[in-house]
Amino acid sequence: MVKKLFAVLGREIRGLHEAAYILAGFAILSQILALVRDKLLAFMFGAGHALDIYYAAFRIPDLIFASVGSLVSASILLPYFISRFERDTKEGKAFSNEIFSAFFALIVIVSAIVYVFAPRIIPLVIPGFAGDPALPELITSMRIMLLSPFFLGLSNLFSSLTQMNHRFLVYAASPVVYNAGIIAGVLFAYPLFGVTGLALGVAAGAFLHMAIQIPFIARARILPRFTFKIHWSDIRRIVLTSFPRTVTLSANQFASFFLVSLASLMSAGSISVFSFAFNLQSVPLTIIGASYSSAVFPTLSQLFYKGNLKEFLEKMIASARHIIFWSMPLAVLFVVLRAQIVRTVLGAGKFDWADTRLTAALLALFTISTVGQSLIVLFVRAFYAEGKTARPLLINVISAAIIVISGWGLVKAFAEFPLFKFFLEDLLKVSGQGGTSVLVLALAYTIGVGVNTILHWYVFERAYRGFTRPVLATLFHSFSASVITGYVAFLSLRFFAILFPLEKVWGIFMQGLCSGLVGIVVGVLVLILLKNRELAEVWATLHQKIWKVPVPPAEVEHI
Where are the bilayer-spanning segments (predicted)? Predict the structure, then answer.
């Protein structure tokens, strides 16, 4: 049974839309587990001090993963692996062994240093816990989570090899088992070890994220091995190539880190509601933006490597069109149905109505930026496929600086200008609620993402003339249909509020579900009237048996 499962996961897939939809399917499964994870955490803890410790413990390991783990990212290594393995398999294996060994040594050294100096680092970077009695528990949890960047970094390295061979199923299944490991930690380790048990679950999930890829690469005889024979010139070339990407990711992580640091100085539960809302807004990004970008990246790398820039641009246009087609209506529905989504996903146990209102308001602010976030992932992958890492580096550093400056400035404005405070609270329906200062952190993040999207689009259009026009046509269609979809869903909420008991979670769920479905039906009719191209392509793709898509000959370069 297990053997058959790994055989299915290791199957080759080459069609762009088919690969994207399969990745999206696994992303949906992963997100369902992530929502179950958050539901359990909300039920058991609510948005309070204990959960703040858990989410705060993530910050430093996340920063290590973004800085050190990004050195072995598929976005960087995949073009190198493709060129090495296409020239000679033996050369490709030797190269992967070198990368594995160098990363192993580096991540162990960095993690050991952070482990030793954790008692001094944490009070400085998360100042809200400096004098907190729970500081020792936070330090212990963070130390356990240091295993996460180690395992996830190795998983990144292995995923380069699986994606190179178009084994998207095993790559897509990794986040599923990651969330399963965290859920196991919540259910079984927490009752035994407390908050540190949650950290053990994170470490176990990271291990599974890596381990699920090992059977395929071992069977293909490309599993990296530790070696002392390292050509440091190769490592230096990789580091120089990946350094801009490392700074790019670190800049984004630093911006998020700064926002969480500010949240630690706010009322108890601010880190929790910020994290819950951020996780919820990541659902469309993971399902749509990340899926399409991951599916198209190997093709972009191969097309650029072979000098086929025309098809390179065509793939980018197709991916951008479909990302906008899917993500924009979903973002609008998230804003309109935010209270129903938060109450359904998180509302139970210790997660009360006040927590729901505040998290829903944060979700609305975050969701405004989800279309931009999805496009940013695509643009960055395109630049990395070309080996041009300086452009996204500069753009992301600028946007991270804007997030940091905006966060600091908006916190000051919220405290010193009552009119701004009352306007934001009234707009998001949280007037009279405590802890609303955390709202400006989500607003600062959205402002930074907006600038980031505009800059990436502008730079890509300058490099590839003709990208904007066909994408703007899709943007117009999708925006028009999305506005109508959202308005119809909003009106439907009042009607279904009569039919379902809103004092029950299932009633709130049915109200949101039915309203969303009515809005979607109307939105699809609008797209049909507009003769939308993406809708026709989606219809054609869904009529295929995606899991039985025939593999084209090796010389045909399509994913």
Answer: 20-36, 63-82, 94-118, 138-158, 170-192, 198-218, 254-277, 283-303, 323-341, 361-384, 393-415, 435-459, 471-496, 508-530
Max Cα distance, the chain (Å): 71
Q: Would the pLDDT of 19 be above 70?
A: no
Distances (CA, A) of 504 to 335, 348, 363, 430: 21, 10, 22, 21
Which uninterrupted H or E stretch holds 469?
Answer: helix 468-499
Rg (CA), the chain: 23
Residues 361 and 276: beta-carbon distance below 8 Å: no
The closest of 167, 178, 256, 257 to 220, measured between CA atoms, is: 167
- Give the Cα separation of 489 and 337 in Å (integer): 8
DSSP, res 223: -
* CA 37 – CA 539 distance, rounded (Å): 33
Which has more pLDDT, 370 or 549?
370
C-alpha to C-alpha distance for 80 and 59, rounded to whole angstroms: 31
To 5 degrees, how large is the angle CA 404–CA 406–CA 409?
110
Structure tokens at 541: 């793709």
CB-based contact 314:304 (threshold 8 Å): no
What kind and span of H or E run contains 177? helix 168-184
Q: Is the pLDDT of residue 558 over 80?
A: no
* 125 vs 27, residue with greater confidence: 125
pLDDT at 555 over 50: no
Specify whether the CB–CB gap between 365 and 446 falls below 8 A.
yes
Which residue reads 């580091």 in tokens?
239
User: Residue 168: which H helix or E strand, with range?
Assistant: helix 168-184
Rounded to whole angstroms, how far apart are CA atoms 412 and 62?
Answer: 27
Beta carbons within 10 angstroms of residue 270's beta carbon: 25
Helix ranges (H only) for 212-308 are 214-219, 232-264, 270-284, 291-305
Q: What is the average pLDDT value for the chain, to the nearest integer?
A: 82
Interval 228-247 mean pLDDT? 76
